């Protein structure tokens, strides 16, 4: 059913309109009015478990096909005894409402209005068909979310936004048992979630702002509750309510993002209805996990509510000597100060003494992508030093979200976050392959990364009519102060050579910068950046036409950016001190977007949009020259179709993106980048998110991305991975494919609840993921092989069979079911990333 919201707080014309739409709803109810004879005589089978009354009424509406209209606050914190058996809708509804203090009446054969007994019905947020208007930051319903804040910073239907937005709902994450954001994004159109295989994918977090996730061929950025994050804890799915993919430039509302788009995540916050959940998990590689998620009211009225989620997990990984350990907690409180004002406060602490990342994880092409002299290199192979392999992080965060409604025209929203992330690591890094059976490793000593961010977004929003046009407007400003410190010691005292197939590396570091026995360097890098932006947006509607127009001005300043290096050259034992005082220049840019959507009454909505992007650059080339900012433009056209009266959303989009000053790795100067000129990404996406029936859920997508160097003066030689050398004359990169970007991707995932009485409580799911080839470098030297992976799982709700076990559910999920050995991407300089093998995860969850 289409959800509808009518808010009694607006009074006046709003209440009058509600009475006109639901004429009899404004009349005092009686305990129950008889339904029309045909409806009353219609007997159906009901199977509604005990639990929150709101959920029970939703199940009743789905089964009986009767619309329920009521104030959302009426069912808050009310339980339901559940229902099982064959009966008329009248009998079923009477039993569900028994003892609730609520009355009902039929306004026609398919509509029922609820109210408190002996009280007039005053319409607040209204539920139609048993569901409220979905929260734009909530978990969604099944595999479908209808509203979002991510695209416009206003509560807007996805059908009214003229660009591609896809929501990974909480139910989808649960069914797939995604352990990190990369895994949650596996079935999203336009996203290549795991281009680096298990290099960093063992760890559940992919946070740190700019990640290895590719979006329409460009690196992606992660936002939490609307603010860019640099915390390594951003990817902890235990703390997330939903994940959203916004494809295409989003700089107008969010500032510094690539033209590929952004990943928007919403943290768990206090719920209106009580929530009590604990779980115990287990899996291969010695995984053991415990979580809990609790939410309830603090005050009797429920205007103050709390929620606390926590996780503790330990496990090995598919790679020897790489482990993952984490404990974390996310407490939050919501205070509805009055009917116009609310405040939500969140805190987070995460301790990850082993982050599960394999920083020496690239395999030689011969032995992974191609057969080697001794066959395939096992996925469990570890090239680092087992006695020198410690990486971990500590993350802390404080956040608040404030809202105040001045009147029906103006509302104020503000989000603030302070976050700090410290990462320490002792490990050996990737280096060169020196023969078909040997490789040399880079010697990295202790390293410390410190990230600290203070961010604030403040905005005024409102609605106003100008003649036949209705406007939803936003005016806002945000700022972000980001500090990054890095201290790193590099030990070059002796070469470390290991066997490719049977590495047994033991490393004795030589780190004393003043010792004659050591040859090393110690670098200190400090960078402070301040970004501020002001933005506006107007969403205009006239009948079925929606027009969106927005613009933004960004300023970026660097308070200080400097590096300091101490080097000890063993040959002469001289200590050189090289401070660098070069600070990037201030940068600014104006970005804008415009788009239109037309919604036909039968559910189809074609759209077209143009948008731009901006990212400042703080790095320099090997000569110390700063890079120009990255600027992008996109044209997008598409279709969205919402099947009437069904939770089925179908989308299709075609896009054309240009980005100027695209950066690639400098092949001649290690650790530096170079400006590759302009790149072009064009293609199309089709997707389906559907709750097909009450028992069947489905997501599916296909993505075609053709990304090439459109204009460049760069040249390079081709690389022969068999001979491990470059050959031939240098070729122009213009017209060549950008490396590491798959041209074709296809996926689907479905979950089915078995309807037979004998299998009651069982659900099964299955998914498939196809990823096409990617090129290894900027002159198409060679490419990876396409691969197909299968995922499967099952769950059993014990309460469906045994009343004493009500609330207990078991689940098992397997990814890469066939244990396929596959390579996600290769680099001519370093080798190949190998993907994750079969992962098995199961858990027992109890809700009460």
TrEMBL record:
What segments bear the compositional bias annotation Polar residues? 198-215
| Primary location recorded for the protein, binned into one broad class | membrane
Limits of the Secretin/TonB short N-terminal domain = 66-117
Molecular function as annotated in GO: siderophore uptake transmembrane transporter activity; signaling receptor activity
Which keywords annotate this record? Cell outer membrane, Ion transport, Iron, Iron transport, Membrane, Receptor, Signal, TonB box, Transmembrane, Transmembrane beta strand, Transport
Give GO cellular component annotations, separated by semicolons. Answer: cell outer membrane
Q: Read off the Pfam families from this record.
A: Plug, STN, TonB_dep_Rec_b-barrel
Q: Which domain of life is it from?
A: Bacteria
Positions of the region Disordered? 196-215
As for membrane topology, the entry says: Multi-pass membrane protein
Q: Where in the cell is it found?
A: Cell outer membrane
What PROSITE patterns has UniProt attached to this entry?
TONB_DEPENDENT_REC_3
Position of the signal peptide: 1-34
Instruction: State the family it belongs to.
Output: Belongs to the TonB-dependent receptor family.
NCBIfam families reported for this sequence: TonB-siderophor
Q: What is this protein called?
A: Iron complex outermembrane receptor protein
Organism placement in taxonomy: Bacteria, Pseudomonadati, Pseudomonadota, Alphaproteobacteria, Acetobacterales
């Amino acid at each position: 059913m289409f959800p509808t919201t009518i808010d009694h707080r607006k009074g006046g014309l709003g209440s009058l309109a509600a009475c006109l739409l639901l004429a009899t709803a404004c009349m005092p109810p009686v305990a129950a009015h008889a339904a029309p004879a045909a409806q009353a005589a219609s007997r159906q089978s009901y199977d509604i478990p005990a639990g929150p009354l709101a959920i029970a009424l939703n199940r009743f509406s789905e089964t009986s096909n009767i619309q329920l209209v009521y104030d959302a606050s009426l069912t808050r914190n009310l339980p339901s005894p559940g229902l099982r058996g064959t009966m008329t809708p009248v009998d079923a509804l009477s039993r569900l409402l028994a003892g609730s203090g609520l009355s009902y009446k039929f306004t026609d054969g398919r509509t029922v209005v609820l109210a408190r007994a002996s009280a007039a019905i005053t319409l607040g947020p209204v539920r139609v068909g048993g569901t409220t208007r979905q929260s734009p930051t909530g978990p969604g319903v099944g595999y479908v979310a209808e509203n979002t804040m991510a695209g416009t910073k206003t509560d807007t239907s996805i059908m009214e936004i003229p660009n591609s937005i896809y929501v990974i709902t909480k139910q989808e994450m649960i069914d797939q048992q995604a352990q990190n954001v990369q895994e949650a994004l596996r079935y999203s159109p336009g996203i290549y979630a795991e281009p680096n295989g298990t290099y960093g994918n063992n760890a559940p977090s992919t946070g740190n702002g700019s990640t290895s996730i590719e979006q329409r061929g460009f690196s992606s950025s992660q936002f939490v509750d609307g603010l860019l994050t640099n915390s390594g804890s951003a990817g902890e799915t235990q703390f997330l309510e939903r994940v959203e993919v916004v494809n295409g430039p989003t700089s107008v509302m969010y500032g510094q993002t690539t033209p590929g788009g952004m990943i928007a995540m919403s943290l768990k916050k206090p719920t209106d209805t009580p929530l009590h959940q604990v779980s115990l998990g287990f899996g291969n590689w010695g995984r053991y996990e415990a979580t809990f998620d609790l939410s309830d009211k603090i005050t009797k009225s429920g205007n103050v509510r709390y929620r606390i989620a926590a996780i503790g997990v330990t496990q090995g990984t598919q790679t020897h000597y790489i482990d993952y350990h984490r404990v974390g907690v996310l407490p939050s409180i919501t205070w509805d100060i009055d009917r116009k004002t609310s405040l939500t406060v969140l805190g987070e602490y995460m301790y990850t003494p082993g982050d599960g990342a394999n920083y020496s994880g690239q395999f030689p092409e011969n032995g992974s992508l191609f057969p080697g002299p001794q066959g395939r290199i096992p996925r469990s192979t570890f090239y680092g030093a087992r006695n020198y392999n410690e990486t971990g992080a500590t993350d802390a965060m404080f956040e608040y979200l404030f809202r105040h409604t001045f009147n029906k025209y103006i509302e104020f929203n503000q989000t603030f976050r302070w976050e700090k992330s410290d990462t320490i690591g002792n490990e050996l890094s990737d280096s060169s392959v020196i023969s078909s059976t040997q490789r040399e490793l880079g010697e990295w000593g202790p390293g410390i990364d410190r990230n600290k961010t203070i961010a604030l977004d403040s905005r005024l929003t409102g609605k106003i009519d100008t003649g036949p046009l209705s406007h939803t407007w936003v005016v806002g400003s945000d700022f972000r102060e980001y500090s990054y410190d890095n201290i790193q010691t590099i030990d070059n005292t002796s070469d470390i050579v290991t066997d490719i197939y049977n590495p047994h590396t033991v490393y004795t570091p030589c780190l004393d910068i003043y010792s004659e026995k050591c040859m090393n360097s110690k670098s200190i890098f400090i960078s402070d950046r301040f970004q501020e932006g002001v933005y506006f947006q107007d969403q205009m509607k006239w009948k079925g036409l929606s027009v969106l127009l927005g613009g933004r001005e960004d300023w970026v300043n660097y308070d200080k950016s400097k590096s300091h290096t101490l080097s000890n050259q063993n040959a002469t034992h001289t200590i050189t001190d090289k401070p660098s005082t070069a600070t990037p220049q201030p940068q600014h840019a104006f970005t804008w977007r415009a788009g239109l959507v037309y919604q036909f009454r039968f559910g189809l909505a074609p759209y077209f949009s143009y948008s731009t992007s901006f990212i400042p650059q703080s790095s320099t080339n090997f000569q110390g020259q700063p890079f120009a900012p990255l600027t992008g433009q996109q044209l997008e056209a598409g279709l969205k179709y919402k099947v009437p009266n069904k939770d089925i959303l179908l989308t299709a989009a075609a896009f054309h993106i240009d980005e100027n000053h695209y950066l690639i790795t400098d092949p001649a100067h290690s650790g530096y980048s170079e400006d590759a000129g302009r790149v072009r990404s064009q293609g199309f996406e089709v997707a389906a998110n559907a709750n097909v029936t009450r028992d069947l859920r489905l997501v599916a997508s296909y993505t075609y991305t053709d990304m090439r160097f459109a204009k460049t003066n760069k040249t390079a030689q081709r690389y022969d991975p068999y001979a491990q050398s470059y050959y031939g004359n240098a070729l122009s990169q213009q017209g060549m494919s950008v490396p590491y970007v798959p041209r074709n991707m296809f996926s689907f995932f479905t979950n089915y609840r078995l309807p037979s009485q004998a299998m009651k409580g069982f659900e099964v799911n299955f998914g498939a993921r196809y990823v096409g080839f990617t090129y290894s470098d900027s002159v198409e030297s060679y490419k990876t092989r396409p691969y197909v992976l299968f995922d499967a799982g099952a769950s059993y709700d014990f309460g469906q069979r045994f009343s004493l076990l009500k609330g207990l559910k078991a689940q098992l999920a397997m990814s890469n079911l066939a244990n396929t050995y596959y390579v996600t991407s290769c680099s001519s300089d370093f080798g190949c990333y190998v993907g994750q093998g079969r992962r098995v995860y199961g858990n027992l969850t109890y809700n009460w």
